[in-house]
Design brief:
single chain; alpha/beta; globular
C-alpha cells in the first residue's frame, strides 16, 4: 500500500505492531486501541507511535494521551460508512490533535476533498491509484459553505468581507 499525503504518493513508513515487543522495535508503529489502553505507560515514551482507532470507538478515550501520539489511523470499513469523518472532526476541533490523521479502508477519490475538510492529512491507498483523479477531487469545489478543520473560508464570510460598490 501507498500513502497519499500532502498531494504526493509516498511509501508508507508505518508498520502495524501486534504486541508490545513489536512496538518497541525501531521505526514508526501503529498499535491497536486495545494494546494502547493496556500498555500506554510503556508506549507513551516512544517517538513514532500511532493508534488505530476503530470507527465505533469514542475519540475521547485518547484525549489524555494526544500529546504523545504521533498519528491516528481512522478506519473506514466500507466507503459508505462515514463515522471516521466525525471522529476526525472531533479529534481536530474539540481535542486539538495536531498529529497525522490517516484514513484507512476503501475510501474513494470522490471522498478525498471531504477527508481533507474533516482534518485528515493522509490516506492509505493502493499503489496503482490514478493520482491526478485524487488531486482533482480535492480541488473540485472552489467554494465551501461551512467552516471545517481545513480552515478554508466559507462563502458567506467571503461575501460579507467583499467591498460593496455604492451607486452614484
Amino acid at each position: 500500500m501507498a500513502l497519499l499525503k500532502n498531494g504526493k504518493l509516498l511509501q508508507d513508513r508505518w508498520e502495524t505492531a501486534e504486541t508490545v515487543e513489536e512496538a518497541l522495535k525501531p521505526g514508526a508503529k501503529f498499535v491497536s486501541l486495545d494494546l494502547w489502553l493496556a500498555e500506554r505507560g510503556l508506549l507513551r515514551g516512544l517517538g513514532a507511535i500511532g493508534v488505530i482507532l476503530p470507527n465505533d470507538a469514542d475519540p475521547g478515550v485518547l484525549v489524555d494521551d494526544l500529546d504523545r501520539i504521533a498519528a491516528i489511523s481512522l478506519s473506514f470499513p466500507a466507503f459508505t460508512d462515514g463515522r471516521a469523518f466525525s471522529q476526525a472532526r472531533i479529534l481536530r476541533d474539540r481535542y486539538g490533535f495536531g498529529g497525522e490523521l490517516r484514513a484507512n479502508g476503501p475510501v474513494i477519490a470522490d471522498q478525498y476533498s471531504f477527508l481533507l475538510r474533516c482534518g485528515f492529512d493522509a490516506v492509505v491507498v493502493s499503489a496503482d491509484i490514478h493520482l491526478e483523479t485524487w488531486l482533482g477531487a480535492a480541488q473540485r469545489f472552489r467554494s465551501v459553505y461551512q467552516p471545517a478543520a481545513d480552515d478554508r473560508v466559507p462563502a458567506y464570510r467571503l461575501r460579507h468581507a467583499a467591498p460593496v460598490a455604492l451607486a452614484s
